[in-house]
Design brief:
The structure is a single chain. The protein is mostly helical. The protein has two domains: 100 residues, no CATH class; 30 residues. The chain contains seven helices and no strands. Helix 3 packs parallel to helix 5. The chain is extended, with a radius of gyration of 23 Å. It starts with a helix and ends with a helix. 17% of the residues are buried.
Length: 156
């Protein structure tokens, strides 16, 4: 088979395979992601206002408490099987906020808990979130070093 025939064959095959795929509804998917992600952020903002008015928290204490509450909520909903249904309907809108990170840690931990605490739960818990944590720590450390060097040079 020559290069030209192979190219036509590949093009025809891709056309045949794509004929079975339903068309993607980009506008509808973007709308759902925006609405669900925005709703999750509104829940976080509600927690923020509630903690600010009831407990008088402010600054870092308030931000940390809201983050912990959202992580707990995301993990709880993952454990109950609700977050996966939200994710199927919302797409990227459910993975962007902090609750999506909690889901990415809790889901593999639940999936592999039958393999035991060490080889299942502990080893598989960070399969999805591990690279995020590693690159986040490395980016933070690199930023800190750059900021330190700029401070020594008198730029910052």
């Amino acid at each position: 088979m020559t290069g030209r025939h192979r190219e036509n064959y590949n093009r025809n095959y891709l056309r045949y395979v794509n004929s079975f795929d339903p068309p993607t509804k980009h506008t509808k998917n973007c709308y759902r992601a925006f609405m669900v992600g925005g709703f999750i952020c509104c829940i976080g903002q509600f927690f923020r206002y509630l903690l600010e008015s009831l407990l008088g928290l402010s600054g870092d204490e308030l931000a940390g408490t809201v983050s912990v509450l959202l992580i707990f909520l995301g993990t709880l909903l993952t454990g109950l099987g609700v977050y996966d249904r939200i994710g199927r309907n919302a797409g990227a809108g459910s993975i962007v906020p902090i609750t999506g990170f909690a889901n990415s840690v809790a889901s593999p931990a639940m999936e592999f808990k039958a393999e035991g605490l060490v080889y299942g739960l502990a080893a598989k818990m960070f399969t999805v979130a591990g690279p995020i944590i590693v690159y986040g720590v490395l980016a933070g450390a690199l930023t800190g070093v750059i900021y330190y060097v700029l401070g020594l040079c008198g730029v910052v």
